[in-house]
């Protein structure tokens, strides 16, 4: 009985030519970048953005599509635009950019960030698409930057360009992997500390998928010296999951 072998990224110079049953799979095998132009409506605001309709095989490519947390945060923003008016904002884990780009309609400046290079490509495309679409409502300067949570070099590079820090830190559906929550709050704390308690807050759209994560988010915020409170009236069901908007500030 013959046995098929699967090899990822088989090197070109392999001398293992005898192995005819080896199937070689490059990285592109796991990558779907057939993005579709999709229309999203939040209140009176319509956005047309490129995204996937379902996830790629690679777990790290979560940012290629729009998550329920982004829908929750964008609804909240479109109903409370005064929170953003004239502000500078940085978004963490922007994915395709649906939240940061909507914020660009009200803020004066938005920096959209992600750690995944493939996601950054589509994020930059969507920013360019939005800027080229003849849209008089888009007034903010939008930019995309690489930011891995907890990576001080990445964060310092952003803060060098924005030494005054930001009025708002935003995050939609970014608490879903336990090991990334502590570094996420490290970066949040650094960003909030740049401005101080009254002058910067983190608005997090949290979608509950496990009790353990529900507890962890609150615990990590407190352990980082932050206070976290649920915004009244925001707890709702979205895509069959419970979501809520948290406001997080320095204590
Ligand atoms: C579940 S997706 C949410 C995307 C978008 N905010 C939304 O709601 O549609 C999580 C995003 O966070 C990014 N991400 C995950 N872990 C990260 C990390 N350690 N540092 C920075 N970004 C991360 C992913 O690349 C992805 O874009």
Automatic annotation (TrEMBL):
Domain of life: Eukaryota
The entry's keywords: Methyltransferase, Transferase
GO terms under cellular component: nucleus
GO molecular function: protein methyltransferase activity
BP terms from Gene Ontology: methylation
Pfam name, any one: Methyltransf_16
Positions in coiled-coil regions: none
Keyword Methyltransferase found: yes
Protein name, UniProt field: Protein N-lysine methyltransferase METTL21A
Organism: Artemisia annua (Sweet wormwood)
Lineage of the species this protein comes from: Eukaryota, Viridiplantae, Streptophyta, Embryophyta, Tracheophyta
């Amino acid at each position: 009985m013959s046995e098929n072998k699967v090899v990822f990224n088989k090197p070109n110079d392999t001398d293992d030519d005898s192995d005819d049953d080896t199937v070689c799979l490059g990285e592109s095998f796991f990558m779907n970048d057939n993005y579709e132009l999709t229309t999203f409506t939040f209140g009176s605001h319509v956005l047309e953005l490129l995204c996937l309709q379902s996830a790629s095989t690679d777990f790290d490519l979560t940012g290629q599509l729009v998550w329920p947390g982004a829908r929750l945060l964008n609804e909240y923003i479109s109903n409370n635009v005064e929170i953003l008016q004239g502000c500078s904002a940085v978004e963490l884990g922007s994915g395709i950019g649906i939240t940061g780009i909507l914020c660009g309609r009200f803020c004066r400046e938005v920096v959209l960030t992600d750690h995944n290079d493939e996601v950054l490509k589509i994020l930059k495309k969507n920013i360019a698409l939005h800027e080229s679409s003849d849209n008089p409502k888009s007034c903010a300067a939008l930019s995309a930057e690489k930011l891995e949570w907890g990576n001080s070099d990445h964060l310092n590079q952003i803060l060098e360009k924005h030494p005054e820090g930001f009025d708002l830190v935003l995050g939609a559906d970014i608490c879903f992997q336990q090991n990334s929550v502590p570094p996420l709050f490290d970066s949040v704390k650094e960003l909030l500390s740049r401005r101080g308690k009254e002058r910067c807050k983190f608005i997090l759209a949290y979608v509950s998928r496990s009790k353990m994560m529900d507890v962890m988010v609150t615990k990590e915020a407190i352990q980082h010296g932050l206070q976290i409170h649920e915004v009244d009236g925001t707890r709702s069901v979205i895509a069959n999951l419970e979501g809520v908007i948290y406001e997080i500030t320095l204590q």
